[in-house]
Amino acid sequence: MKAEIVAIGSELLTPFRQDTNSLYLTEKLNQLGVEVIFKTIVGDNRQHLLSAAEMALSRGDLVIFMGGLGPTEDDLTREAVAEVLGLQLHRDDELLAKLEKRFAKHRIKMSPNNAKQADILAGAVVLPNSLGTAPGQWLAGNFDDQEKIVLLLPGPPHELKRVFEEECMARLRAKLPPSFIATRVLKVAMMPESECDARVAPIYKGYPDVETTILAGAGEIQLHLKMQSNSLEAAQEKVDRLAGEIEDELGDFVFSSRGESLEQIVGYYLQMRNATLAVAESCTGGLLTERITSVSGSSRYFLGGAVVYSNDLKTDFADVPAELIEKHGAVSKQVAAALAGGIRKRCKAALGIGITGVAGPTGGTEEKPVGLVFHALAGEGSTDVVERTFPGDRKRIRWFASQQALDMVRRKLV
After folding, report:
1. Do residue 22 and residue 164 come from a single domain?
2. Largest distance between two CA atoms of the chain
3. Any idea what the CATH number is for the domain that residue 155 is in?
4. Are residues 195 and 116 part of one domain?
5. Is residue 272 a contact partner of residue 413, using CB atoms and an 8 Å limit?
6. Cβ proximity of 193 and 221 under 8 Å
7. Strands 302-307, 277-281: pairing kind
8. Closest CA relative to residue 157, chosen from 49, 27, 65, 22
9. DSSP label at 251?
10. How do beta strands 220-229 and 125-127 pair?
11. DSSP 254-277
């Protein structure tokens, strides 16, 4: 079964509101073996809503409309769906009485326009909404010679979740044929997207029934593998087999095969090795520390460190010789190495990280352009330094730098 989700509300087309309901519904539908093939956001405009509803109902086996079930003039979902399906709306007297009772309980006079919330599509089942005044509706039947399920759900997230879990999940399980979706997520560090795809495309093309999606971020590639089948065991076996072949090809570029973040993986390895870590950050401004400490239990392996933005603090907090900075400049492999070694000794850690660079957008020169970052990792008896020039804006460069530093720790511990 293929599903489409239509989110309704002009506020969702502004920079100030985000549709999170569809993420929740997609997760729940995937658990039922239902694949979401389209998501649409449409404003509170009758013509636009009619067009979106007609398109969604023409291609989805299960269509979920979210929002637009309130009492105001711009709440048009019921009317639009009824018109597209050629159904009449009727006012449910029992539901209307419940609405009036609800308002009376709170000693609020019900406005006449609230009565439209008792308008139900012909043949629909009312889905009670214990958290609000807008009930949902369930409609299942043959439309244009195709069996379809149509759901109308309230827009507020807490109401939608309550109605879907209490009223829809069991109905869908009883209605849907047995189907399952098996998934895996592989995460790859510090490899260009083009190189990653060039290496793994010949592999995943040999699995045409497994959908492979590649997502690229700053210093991280994610490969999402998904297969739908009437047997979860068979689907998962095939997805896992593909994941294994991709891991064999990419080797230690793959840092996670179960969805963990890079900072989580680094934490696992530090604990496995009974090792501790300290950091001295310049251009990343504490971002690396924030990522490390975002993991619960990080106090077992992360000792601390310093944000050493000024040259004086590089000397005071990480024992970087002032003459070294004077000779090579704050952004240099020599200073990065001194930061790593200095903070390691100052904090008495097994490993020390030093980061210094030009995050931009100002401060770059021809010799040291924006995006140039030196990363150093100091351990007992050795210090590794990696020089990289990262693309993008200040935020992206800083994230790249923190990613590179974490990956250095991972590779050292592996």
Report:
1. yes
2. 86
3. 3.40.980.10
4. no
5. yes
6. yes
7. parallel
8. 22
9. G
10. unpaired
11. EEESSS--HHHHHHHHHHHTT--E
DSSP-assigned letter for residue 355: E
**190 and 338 fall within a common domain:** no
How many structural domains compose the chain?
3
Helix (H) / strand (E) element for 2: namely strand 2-8
Which tens digit of pLDDT belongs to each residue from 252-296?
A: 999 999 889 999 999 999 999 999 999 999 999 999 999 999 999
Full strand arrangement of the beta sheet holding 302-307: 302-307, 277-281, 351-357, 372-379, 382-389
Q: What is the helix (H) or strand (E) element at residue 174, kind and residue range?
A: helix 169-175
Q: Which residue's structure tokens are 């759901």?
A: 151
- CB neighbourhood size of 133 (10 A): 18
Under a CB-based contact definition with an 8 Å cutoff, are residues 386 and 406 in contact? no
| Dihedral angle over CA of 213, 215, 221, 222, nearest 10 | -50
Provide the token pair at 246. 């991709």
Tell which residue, 86, 10, 77, has the closest CA to residue 50: 77
Where does a domain end: 227, 256, 285?
256
Domain of 352, CATH number, reads: 3.90.950.20
Report residue 181: phi and psi, to 5°. Answer: -120, 120
Question: Would you call the peptide bond into 112 cis, given omega within 30 degrees of 0 as the criterion?
Answer: no
Is residue 391 very low, low, confident or very high in pLDDT (cuts 50, 70, 90)?
very high
Write a three-state SS string for 30-63: HHCCCEEEEEEEECCCHHHHHHHHHHHHHHCCEE
For 318, the domain range is 262-413
Burial degree of 166 (CB within 10 A; 0-12, 13-18, 19+): middle
pTM of the predicted structure, to 2 decimals:
0.81
Please give the Cα distance from 30 to 179 (Å, whole number): 9
Angle in degrees, 0-180, between the axes of helices 46-59 and 77-85, rounded to the nearest 10 = 50
**At how many degrees (to 10) do helices 311-318 and 333-347 cross?**
40
Q: What is the domain-level CATH number for residue 242?
A: 3.30.70.2860
pLDDT tens track for 49-103: 999 999 999 999 999 999 999 999 999 999 999 999 999 999 999 999 999 998 9
Task: Catalogue the E-assigned strands of 230-276.
Answer: 254-256
> What are the CA-CA distances from residue 201 to residues 76, 183, 188, 217 (Å)?
46, 18, 15, 19
How far apart CA 78 and CA 81 sit, in angstroms, is 5
